[in-house]
Specification:
Helices cover 0% and strands 56% of the residues. The chain has 236 residues and is mainly β. It has one domain (2-235): Jelly Rolls, CATH 2.60.120.10. The radius of gyration is 17 Å and the shape is globular. It starts with a strand and ends with a strand.
């Protein structure tokens, strides 16, 4: 087993007033040659957007883009005709493929919106762009690791992407212990603590810490407190 630990306070940080963003991997004005990506996992941004503010219309191509809100309402629009609001409990995916134009903003003027935006390199390039979102309740994730992202063509649940990658969310009570078995040999897994603290394969993680693990077939997780955890299994 090999590991790489990214403590929360070592992340890149940019505060633009309307946008307060933490970057686990190199992004925009933050660059570290040691933190470009974890296998196919390219971006893990922890964003807070002020009331009524947002990102203007901008392009993407050949990237799988996943958004996971944790507070507030994020309004999305794109040139495929989608106009949606994503909220806590939702998981949204865009397969940018040959190219999309989209924008996002905080739907509310009286409170901030907080969300994770995650980019994964695709397995196939220049596919037809696609959009999907699904809602997962707190009970769906209660003391389990619920699959919320899976590869297109599988029946593993959640929204689907053009990559042999699986994302799982868990909402664990204190002292709960779980095991995650990797779904594809040779993949690695990146564990991220959204809230709380837990031990993952013997390593203690706190709020917003990330741990990349390769050359393993499973993860053991023990929650020290009530803990929200995100697992991202990706090719490495």
């Amino acid at each position: 087993m090999k590991t790489i630990l990214h403590k929360a306070d070592t992340r890149g940080h940019a505060n633009h007033g309307w946008l307060d963003s933490y970057h686990t991997f190199s992004f925009a004005g933050y660059y570290s040659e040691d933190r470009i990506q974890f296998g196919a996992l390219r971006v893990l941004n922890d964003d807070t957007v002020a009331g009524g503010m947002g990102f203007g219309t901008h392009p993407h191509d050949n990237m799988e883009i996943i958004s996971i809100p944790t507070h507030g309402d994020l309004e999305h629009h794109d040139n495929m005709g989608n106009k949606q609001v994503i909220r806590e409990g939702d998981v949204q995916v865009m397969s940018a493929g040959t190219g999309i134009q989209h924008g996002e903003k905080n739907k509310n003027h009286n409170e901030e919106v907080r969300f994770f935006q995650i980019w994964v390199f695709p397995k196939l390039k220049n596919v037809k762009p696609r959009y999907d979102q699904q809602h997962f309740s707190a009970d769906d994730k209660k003391n389990k690791l619920l699959t919320v992202v899976s590869p297109i063509g599988t029946a593993d649940g959640g929204v689907q992407i053009y990559q042999d990658a699986w994302f799982s969310l868990g909402k664990l009570d204190k002292d709960v212990e779980l095991t995650y078995s990797l779904k594809k040999p040779g993949n690695g897994i990146y564990a991220f603590i959204i809230e709380g603290s837990a031990e993952v394969n013997g390593i203690t993680l706190s709020r917003r810490d990330g741990l990349g693990i390769t050359e393993t077939e499973k993860l053991t997780i023990k929650a020290f407190t009530d803990t929200d955890i995100l697992l991202m299994e990706v090719p490495v």
